[in-house]
Write a sequence for this structure.
């Protein structure tokens, strides 16, 4: 139930130090995503419940979230709703970070869930099964947009630029 640490410390990423939170309860998909992301130089942490994902977002900074909707303790869209409800103060780094980009991963028949997720503030979605190259392209685009609209302080690893 807790956040599995597969991160930064053990495996230094070279993809700009980007850290991705994978919220997925299907172990096979989660493991595949994590391995693929790490291969591409991202740090990836995996959570398998709404509760553990919220805990992770409340305690650590992530550059993006890959979000499955059907989770054992609730709907993943609850995470988007709560995240976007956070009141952010300009220039003040706080967690959970309301501006964290979220990409929803859904099954083909979950059209309404996807729409609901986007309406709640998710940035993009992909239908399973998805192609890793497309996933990465969407991730990058999403994170670029997020940096463009973020607070005046841009965090990049340990470096902060005003
Ligand atoms: Ca699921």
């Amino acid at each position: 139930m807790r956040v599995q640490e597969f991160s930064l410390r053990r495996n230094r990423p070279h993809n700009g130090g980007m850290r991705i939170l994978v919220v997925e309860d299907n172990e096979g998909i989660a493991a595949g995503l994590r391995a693929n992301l790490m291969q591409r130089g991202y740090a990836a942490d995996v959570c398998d419940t709404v509760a553990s994902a919220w805990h992770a977002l409340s305690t650590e900074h992530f550059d993006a979230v890959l979000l499955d909707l059907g989770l054992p303790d609730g709907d993943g869209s609850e995470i988007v709703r709560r995240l976007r409800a956070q009141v952010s103060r300009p220039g003040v780094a706080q967690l959970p970070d309301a501006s964290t980009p979220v990409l929803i991963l859904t099954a083909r028949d979950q059209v309404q869930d996807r729409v609901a997720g986007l309406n709640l503030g998710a940035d993009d979605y992909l239908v399973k099964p998805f192609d890793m190259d497309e996933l990465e392209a969407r991730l990058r685009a999403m994170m670029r947009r997020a940096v463009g609209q973020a607070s005046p302080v841009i965090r990049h690893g340990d470096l902060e630029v005003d």
About this structure: Residues 25-26, 68, 70-71 surround calcium ion (CB under 6 Å).
